[in-house]
Amino acid sequence: MYANIMKYMNILHLKQISAKLLYCLTLSLMLLWGSACSWDSPYERPSSANAPVKIETIHDSSTGQNIPQLDNNTQQQIIQNAINQIGSPYQYGGNNPNGFDCSGLVQYSFSRSGLIVPRTTKEQLKFFTEIPRSQLQAGDLVFFRIDAQQMHVGIMLNNQDFVHAPSSGKTVSTTNMSNPYWKSRFLRAARYF
User: Which of 46, 114, 118, 180 has the most CB atoms around it within 10 Å of its CB?
Assistant: First the structure.
C-alpha cells in the first residue's frame, strides 16, 4: 500500500507541495483505501453475546405481550446526553455540540451511550422498531412527517415530552406531544431493540 501511495505522489509531482499538504493527502488516501475495503453495515445491532447494554422486557397488560426495551441506566444516559445539548444551535447536517440537526442529536445521544445508530432520519426510521404510541417512554424516538419530502425525529424524555433540534435559527429544546403542530404531524413511535 505504501508503494502505491508513493507511486501516486511521484506521478502527481507532490514533492513540490509543502510537507503539511503531503501529509494530509497521504492520510486521506490511506483512509479512503481502508474504507473501500469494508462492506459490513456500521448499523447492525450487537449480538446478545457482546451487547454493550442490557435489554430488558416489560409485560404489556393491554396486549399480553412482553416488550423488549433498553435497561434503565442506558435510557437515562441517552436522555441526559440529549438534555445536555439543550441550547446548542441547529445546524443542518450537524451531529456535535457545535450544532445539531434532529437526526444528528439522536445519533450523538445514542452513541455517547455506547449505541451505534444510523445518521439520517430516514435511516433511523428503518432501524428503530415501531411501537404503539401508547407505549412511549423515556429514550424512545418519535418521528414526524413535516411535508412530502421532510421528516423530523425527537427523543422522548417521558411519555409526553421530547427533546429535539427543531430547525434553522432555533436551538435544541423540549416540547410536548400535545403541541398541535407535532400532534398533527406524528408519524411513528419507535424503540431501540
Answer: 118
* Claim to verify: residue 111 and residue 83 sit in the same structural domain: yes
Strands 186-191 and 141-145: what pairing? antiparallel
pTM here?
Answer: 0.70
Active-site annotation holder among 13, 37, 59, 152: 152
pLDDT of 97 over the 90 cut: yes
Q: Whole domain around residue 31: which residue ranges?
A: 2-35
Residue 45 lies in a domain: no
Q: Tens of pLDDT along 168-183? A: 999 999 999 999 999 9
CB atoms closer than 10 angstroms to residue 20:
8
Task: Output the CA–CA distances (angstroms, integers) from residue 65 to 68, 116, 118, in the order listed.
Answer: 10, 27, 28
152 is catalytic: yes
